[in-house]
């Protein structure tokens, strides 16, 4: 490993730890500051924090890898995500920012749901916390898998360390750095590091496709090589079935139920600034997704033209970084990948620990705990969730995209319909909320267990978020219409207490 790579990565690590220290001094005196940054995020920080915590290593590993293998048909995932993210900003963001403050200044999604549906408060907080911790353990594991693959692929010249393989060493190092700044600085540290990491990610995704095309000899040569690989490589519809299309664009449904993303909406300084944050966030997302598509498509052309072996398609970004750039720039690009990985892991760890702290410890074990005690318990929970995620990620054969897709579907189905209807429908009842949460989560788990996401009725698999989202939506409507709703909607005109 060259000095240039070490220098760039060291600089990146120091920057992240420095932000964590700043946040510790600025915003960890009570639970609201540690969990939600005191609701004082600027539009730019909120937008890029939501985007960076959303995309994770999937943006630089999973999506380029899928495009590298299958061509432009995989871009429908990105299109579905873009549409879903836009409507998430329009439908959920302003309402969630308003209502979480009105409903007893709720700091977590489970706390908001319990205040919104007081008749089923205990049940909703308990079940929500369980769903969040279970699916986030899997989701966080996907980020650690990405960190392991980065270390194993990029630093192949290093020997195994202390009985650990390079892959396992990558998991430990990734988890260690994230834990330090998350434990120290809480939500503000996570959000500020997300902002910086989002900028680094976008810059890397703009630079790499351009350099790949230039080094390949221009667009004409690049296109010619792609057609030589597969005449339909650049087709968005070749071989695409209706089920395949729906499974790809259905990724967008997941946005409405991702706690680590929508919690950013709760932390924006004011409802009036949500529109500005939306514009910034959507611009960042479109540029970054186009860059990721370019890495996968142009990367396939480049490795074919130069006879480069790529053992794992999900490492194409790393292979190109090592092949095309001087060590100093390679280090920056690898830091961008680490940024994508760490930004999501830190957000997921914090949301998981917040639910364990606020919705389990504070609810069942110590109702009168002081703010300082709650902050310290939150830090312990961050560590515990990280350990479980590392255990899940320890297998080097794990796939980033597969782990992300399961967790994404789980959250999207369990919380998506629930959040949308809780914010917009006065007729929703407490029992309806519980039904939607349970039915959505159980449907996704059952669909995966039965293998219907791989093969359904003799045909291609159906992405589990489709049946999960639909089943949860129907469950909420049916149960709510059959049960009383009196006292379970506080009109927005009522001043916050």
Explain this structure.
- The protein is 75% helix and 1% strand.
- The protein is mainly α.
- The chain has one domain (9-400): Up-down Bundle (Sodium/glucose cotransporter).
- Strands 1-2 form a two-stranded antiparallel sheet.
- A hairpin with a 2-residue loop joins strand 1 (455-456) and strand 2 (459-460).
- Residues 493-497 have low confidence and may be disordered.
- Secondary-structure content class: mainly alpha
- CATH class reads Mainly Alpha
- What do the pLDDT scores average to? 81
Question: Which spans of ≥5 residues are poorly predicted at pLDDT below 50?
Answer: 493-497
Helix content: over 70%
Shape: globular
Instruction: Calculate the terminal CA-CA distance, rounded to whole Å.
Output: 58 Å
User: In the CATH classification, which architecture applies?
Assistant: Up-down Bundle
Within the largest sheet, what's the order of strands?
A: 1-2
Q: Give the SSE order as H and E letters.
A: HHHHHHHHHHHHHHHHEEH
The major sheet is characterized as:
2 strands, antiparallel
Please report the number of helical segments: 17
Primary descriptors:
two-stranded antiparallel ribbon; Na/Pro_symporter; 497 residues; Sodium/proline symporter; mainly alpha; 2 strands; 17 helices; Sodium/glucose cotransporter; disordered C terminus; sodium ion binding; globular
């Amino acid at each position: 490993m060259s000095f240039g790579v070490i220098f760039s990565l060291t600089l990146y690590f120091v920057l992240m730890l420095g932000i964590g220290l700043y946040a510790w001094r600025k915003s960890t005196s009570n639970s609201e500051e540690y969990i939600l940054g005191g609701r004082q995020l600027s539009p730019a920080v909120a937008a890029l924090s939501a985007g960076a915590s959303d995309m994770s290593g999937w943006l630089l590993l999973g999506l380029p890898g899928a495009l590298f293998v299958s061509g432009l048909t995989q871009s429908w995932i990105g299109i579905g995500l873009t549409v879903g993210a836009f409507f998430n900003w329009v439908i959920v963001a302003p309402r969630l920012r308003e209502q979480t403050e009105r409903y007893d200044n709720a700091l977590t999604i489970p706390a908001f749901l319990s205040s919104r549906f007081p008749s089923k408060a205990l049940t909703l907080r308990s079940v929500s916390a369980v769903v969040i911790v279970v699916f986030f353990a899997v989701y966080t594991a996907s980020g650690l898998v990405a960190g392991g693959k980065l270390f194993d692929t990029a630093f192949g010249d290093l020997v195994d360390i202390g009985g650990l393989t390079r892959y396992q060493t990558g998991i430990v190092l990734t988890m260690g750095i994230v834990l330090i700044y998350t434990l120290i600085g809480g939500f503000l540290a996570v959000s500020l590091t997300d902002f910086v990491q989002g900028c680094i990610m976008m810059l890397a995704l703009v630079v790499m496709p351009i350099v790949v095309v230039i080094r390949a000899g221009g667009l004409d040569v690049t296109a010619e090589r792609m057609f030589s690989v597969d005449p339909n490589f650049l087709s968005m519809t070749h071989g695409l079935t209706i089920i395949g299309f729906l499974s790809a664009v259905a990724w967008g449904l997941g946005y409405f139920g991702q706690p680590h993303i929508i919690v950013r909406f709760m932390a924006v300084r004011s409802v009036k600034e949500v529109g500005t944050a939306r514009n910034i966030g959507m611009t960042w997302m479109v540029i970054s997704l186009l860059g990721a598509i370019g890495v996968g498509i142009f990367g396939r052309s480049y490795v074919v033209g130069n006879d480069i072996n790529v053992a794992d398609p999900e490492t194409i970004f790393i292979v190109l970084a090592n092949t095309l750039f001087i060590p100093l720039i390679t280090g920056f690009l690898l830091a961008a990948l680490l940024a994508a990985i760490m930004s999501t892991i830190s957000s997921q760890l914090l949301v998981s620990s917040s639910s364990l702290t606020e919705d389990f410890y504070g609810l069942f074990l110590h109702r009168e705990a002081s703010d300082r005690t709650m902050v310290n318990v939150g830090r312990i929970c961050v560590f515990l969730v990280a350990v479980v995620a590392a255990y899940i990620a320890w297998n080097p054969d794990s796939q980033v995209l597969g782990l992300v897709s399961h967790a994404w579907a789980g959250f999207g189905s369990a919380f998506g319909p629930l959040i949308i209807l809780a914010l917009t429908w006065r007729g929703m009842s407490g029992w309806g909320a519980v039904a939607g949460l349970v039915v959505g989560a159980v449907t996704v788990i059952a669909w995966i267990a039965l293998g219907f996401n791989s093969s359904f009725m003799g045909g291609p698999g159906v992405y589990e978020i489709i049946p999960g989202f639909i089943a949860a939506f129907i469950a909420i409507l049916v149960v709510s219409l059959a049960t009383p709703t009196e006292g379970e909607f506080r009109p927005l005109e009522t001043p916050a207490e």
